[in-house]
Specification:
The chain is built from 11 helices and no strands. The chain is mostly helical and 207 residues long. It has 2 domains: 154 residues, no CATH class; 38 residues, no CATH class. Helix 2 crosses helix 8, helix 4 runs antiparallel to helix 7 and helix 7 packs antiparallel against helix 8.
């Protein structure tokens, strides 16, 4: 956690989840987490290929986007998902539509026997990837919280801390041989935070 915190503080916000995901997936691959690593499923999560051979049924056109249908046609080639397309189209299209229209589908149980994916969070994330790609980042955070030991601490790292608190914590970890570097983006100015830290340590920033 200490190393992750150090690295995350040196990343842009949009890159922190990428780093956290790589860490989690690598631990899965090495068999160190309670979640089986499947290379085919991992490739699908990253690439989400589209199979355009089967046209979207007219009965689904009112609510299911065509790219989602084509992604489903690739999903059903994965072991365990063979019946997903049939169940969505013929067995419970209305219930799948309700799930699709949910504000937070990643937190809702899927229809029919697919509710078993509540116990298989990585596999459920594949369904979110196919049907609601806009919710994948949230689903990924939920997966990491559940799968990585102390995962909530990783996902929420420094989220509730102010810039002054983060700098004060970084200062504790620093030494004359381990300095603090500020990598600035346009508009960022940490001078005020440094001055606040100096004052809290009894130094006069003006001297």
């Amino acid at each position: 956690m200490t190393i992750f915190t150090w690295v995350a503080r040196g990343l842009f916000e949009r890159h922190k989840q990428i780093f956290m995901s790589l860490l989690t997936f690598r631990l899965m691959q090495k068999g160190l987490l309670d979640c089986e690593y499947d290379a085919a499923q991992m490739n699908f999560l990253v690439q989400c290929p589209l199979n355009t051979e089967t046209p979207r049924p007219s009965s689904l056109k009112d609510w299911l986007p065509e790219p989602a249908w084509f992604a489903i046609q690739s999903l059903i080639k994965l072991e365990g998902f063979e019946q997903f397309s049939t169940h969505l189209e013929k067995e419970a299209p209305r219930r799948f539509m309700d799930w699709y229209n949910s504000l937070t589908p990643e937190n809702d149980k899927l229809p029919l026997d697919w509710k078993r994916l509540e116990q298989l969070p990585f596999q459920k994330m594949l369904v979110v990837r196919v049907l609601r790609p806009d919710r994948v980042t949230t689903a990924l955070d939920n997966f990491i919280k559940r799968t990585l030991p102390n995962g909530k601490a990783f996902v929420e790292c420094d989220n509730s801390s102010s810039a002054d608190q983060v700098l004060a914590s970084s200062y504790v970890d620093s030494t004359p041989a381990t300095p603090i570097f500020f990598i600035l983006s346009p508009g960022a100015n940490p001078i005020k935070n440094v001055q606040n830290l100096a004052k809290s340590l009894g130094f006069d920033p003006a001297k």
